[in-house]
Amino acid sequence: MMLNTISIAALAVSSALLMSAQAPASSTASPTTRILAIGRLTTGTTRDKIMPLMRQEVSDTVRLHLAGKIDQWFARRDQGGVVFLLNVSSVEEARSLLEKLPLGEAKFMEFDLIPLGPLTPLGILLQEGPPASK
Asked: What is the Cα–Cα distance from 44 to 2, expressed in whole angstroms?
């Protein structure tokens, strides 16, 4: 029984990966529930350029968190930048919020915005199969 559950879970995850690889970017099989925003400093941005903006950048970012728009935030370890998990349901809303931050307005930070949603192939686990043999 445990092996069957693991096999079904592996099938669901494999199906999700296959669906995402084959699906056109504009198709949506499930609702967008979050946006993953991966930010990086733009070319030519230096510490000297961003430091005068950082007090306001941090204040505005905390306000977005307290307003429930930023759920989680992380510092990137591979390069200068941040990663936000945003509680918004569209890339357009995410872009609008991030472009209004001081580093966005100054064009010192840019983001890759990735819409996220439920892993719908896991619904396979909820389908009733034949009764287990004893």
From this structure: 54
